[in-house]
Write a structure and sequence with these properties.
alpha/beta; Rossmann fold; Nucleotidyltransferase, domain 5; seven-stranded mixed beta sheet; 14 strands
Length: 485
């Protein structure tokens, strides 16, 4: 190697150590990065340089987000920080171990060693998810929700913390994931350690949605890079509206197939888990009317979804429904709040006193056992009597909503032009991917309760009674005679 070639080689290595893009030019096996990869690379460079402390990257499945945001970035960061400690998490330990093996594989390549000479995997590190380098660096990969022991991280990467739709729809799993982030993951960060969250969106209240809500409430502030499959207004890549992402990889047929499932397309591919047209419900299914213009002679029913713990995220919701002889619903009154049971029980009694519903539907199970004694006692004290129909619990909320969905699809659910009806409609359009679904649960319970009731006929049209004649009155004609009645 000539002195000139040696100087060029030295300069190339220095640039690759400083620049993630230059490093990829040497170590990557994926060819030239696409436009969305370059955007990721630019923002990850800002993280490595200390200019960005919290970064969210939202991209469609198959966009190579894990390759550039996790595998290659981890290898480059560890070479650049030879004694640094990196923590990474994915939705399961098996997946986390897979990324750990891939990062080890990159570090062992001649290309990586060309840039970071002497940066090798320690021979004592056999585990895929936890290993060290000969320079004193450490790598720790865990499944999201798993315990993180004896480790303090200089940087952390969360790559796809949600496995699939079933987890995304499970309130229990989402609550556990948030608790893990607060109690296990976040507490293992060193002061000023940056965090990178890489994922496709699943729901309004997935981990990213929850963190963004926390940011609005004064929590950690995040930089968000959201890249949809098809460009919309203010596209981060500067594409024309409707232009497809990475056309060399994503074909028109792939996009067409993804669009067959509206929820999957909106959330996973467009990064908008709350589409305007709705997932299970559509806005044009619900006729709107002016409150007070509903038909006369409606039969009123009531349904409620209870939240026992105040300020815990869920709302208690009470809804009053009027039914006409054709079976159409007219929503006439609503109450919601994050309050203690004594308050929402009184609000329910207020509605019963006002509307005198024929039935009150609520969910059976744990909540019934917790509130029923207090509920009955207060109803007796206030003399607001109503039969309560305790509907069996169904954990699968989309299935529970099917009966109500059928009525709505036939445009049999009329909503008033009120603020509370707008809020209900917003929840319906976001369901089941929305952050809140308590109001939807009220409608589902009402439909299930009515389905279980035997049909009761409405009063027939009034029939005029036949005249009854007194025996001592002279009849007008033969038919009016008391003898013939």
């Amino acid at each position: 190697m000539t002195p000139q070639e040696a100087a060029i080689e030295l300069l190339t290595r220095r640039r690759a150590r400083r620049s993630y893009l230059d490093y990829l030019g040497i170590a990557s096996t994926e060819g030239q990065p696409a436009a969305h990869h370059k955007l990721m690379i630019e923002r990850l460079q800002a993280v490595a340089d200390g200019q960005c402390k919290r970064l969210m990257l939202f991209l469609p499945p198959g966009s190579a987000k894990s390759y550039y945001g996790n595998v290659m970035f981890s290898a480059w960061w560890m070479g650049r920080n030879p004694r640094g400690q990196l923590l990474t998490a994915s939705y399961g330990q098996e997946v986390a171990d897979k990324w750990g093996r891939r990062v080890k594989g990159v570090i062992r390549t001649p290309e990586h060693l060309r840039v970071f000479g002497g940066h090798e995997i320690s021979r004592s590190s056999d585990a895929a998810g936890r290993w060290a380098t000969t320079t004193g660096g450490e790598y720790y990969a865990v499944g999201a929700g798993g315990a993180i022991t004896s480790y303090r991280a200089d940087i952390a990467i969360i790559d796809d913390p949600i496995k699939g739709r079933e987890e995304a729809d499970s309130a229990t799993i989402k609550d556990k994931l948030r608790e893990w982030y607060k109690s296990d993951f976040w507490t293992r960060l060193k002061p000023n350690a940056p965090v990178v969250l890489i994922m496709t969106r699943w729901a309004d209240d997935d981990l990213a949605g929850w963190l963004l809500d926390e940011a609005q409430a004064g929590g950690e502030q995040w930089e968000v890079v959201s890249v949809p499959m098809e460009a919309g207004p203010n596209d981060p890549l500067g594409r024309a509206p409707g232009e497809r992402l990475w056309a060399d990889w994503f074909t028109e047929e792939m996009v067409r197939e993804a669009k067959r499932d509206r929820r999957r397309w909106s959330a996973l591919y467009q990064q908008t888990p709350a589409p305007d047209e709705g997932i299970q419900f559509r806005g044009d299914w619900f006729p709107r009317y002016r409150l007070g213009d509903e038909p006369q002679g409606l039969r009123y029913y009531m349904a409620s979804d209870f939240a026992v713990t105040p300020d815990a995220g869920d709302y208690t919701e009470h809804g009053v429904f009027g039914l006409d002889p054709q079976g159409r619903w007219w929503l006439v009154d609503w109450w919601s709040g994050q309050t203690t049971p004594d308050i929402w029980i009184d609000r329910a009694c207020d509605l019963i006193a006002r509307w005198r519903p024929m039935l009150w539907a609520a969910e059976a199970g744990v909540i019934r056992r917790a509130v029923e004694p207090f509920l009955m006692r207060r109803m007796q004290e206030r003399r607001t009597y109503c039969k309560i129909e305790w509907v069996p619990s169904i954990s699968d909320k989309p299935t529970r909503a099917r009966s109500f969905e059928a009525r709505a699809a036939m445009q049999m659910v009329n909503m008033p032009r009120t603020e509370w009806a707008d809020r209900l409609l917003d929840q319906l359009l976001r369901f089941p991917a929305g952050k809140h679904d308590d109001a939807v649960d009220v409608c589902s319970l009402m439909a299930l309760a009515l389905d279980s009731m035997p049909a009761a006929p409405y009063p027939a049209e009034e029939i005029k009674p036949r005249r009854v004649m007194r025996w001592d009155k002279e009849p007008d004609d033969e038919l009016d005679s008391w003898r013939t009645l």
